[in-house]
Design brief:
Helix content: 25-40%
Strand content: 5-15%
CATH class: Alpha Beta
Largest sheet: 7 strands, antiparallel
Radius of gyration: 17 Å
Number of helices: 7
Order of helices and strands: HHHEEHHEEEEHEH
Length: 205
């Protein structure tokens, strides 16, 4: 299955209605990170962008966006958190991988960090590493790319969930781009559902 086919399969269970092309400067991103990114992540950023799945998982921005009121999660911050957890939690001893080989692409509301292990020279072969908070193992590697991992996770296909929370609701999944969430909040609506929220916008400028 190609990366575009995986994104289309993901759209069948998680519509990209509230997604948006992140319009990433991939040349700049590659310069910052010293590598190109997996094709499925590039395709995901072009269809969904960075944002939230059911308010319980976030897909990270590869580069910071200056001057934002809303503060979407960034790859650099969560990568630093994952590498620190790897050092503190004995990840190197378990997998014999340097922390510099870990790059985060997502995070859950349960503080699990979804990463790639970047030891393969081909980014399209990078497996997913879950740095778990309330999981059976603190570190677990899955032989899937980012899009296939999300597809399996959102389809409830794992015998044991790789993350510490359940963020799907009877098969109903929604994705909301961070810009859409910001606008809803500023308009006094719940960022995830769009419903009126008396607390939304309380701290907006």
């Amino acid at each position: 299955m190609t990366e575009n086919a995986r994104i289309k399969a993901l759209e069948q269970i998680m519509p990209a209605t509230h997604g948006a092309d992140e319009d990433v400067d991939w040349q700049a991103a590659e310069a910052v990170w010293g590598t190109r990114f997996p094709a499925d992540f590039v395709a995901f950023m072009g269809r969904y962008g960075a944002g939230s799945i059911n308010g319980e998982a976030s897909i990270l921005l590869p580069l910071p966006k200056p001057g934002l009121q809303w503060d979407p999660a960034e790859m650099s911050e969560e990568t630093a958190n994952a590498r620190q957890a790897w050092e503190d939690g004995g990840g190197r001893a378990a997998f014999d991988v340097d922390p510099e080989s870990i790059v985060a692409w997502g995070v859950t509301g349960g503080a699990d960090i979804l990463c790639w292990l970047t030891t393969d020279p081909d980014p399209d072969r990078w497996p997913v590493l879950v740095v778990g908070r309330h999981t059976a193992d603190a570190f677990a590697v899955y032989p899937y790319g980012m899009a296939e991992f999300l597809l399996l996770l959102c389809s409830d296909e794992f015998d044991v969930s790789p993350v510490g929370i359940t963020f799907w609701d009877g098969g109903h999944l929604s994705f909301v781009h961070w810009r859409k969430a910001q606008r809803r909040w500023q308009e006094g609506r719940n960022p995830e559902t769009g419903e009126p929220d008396p607390y939304a916008g309380e701290f907006a400028d």
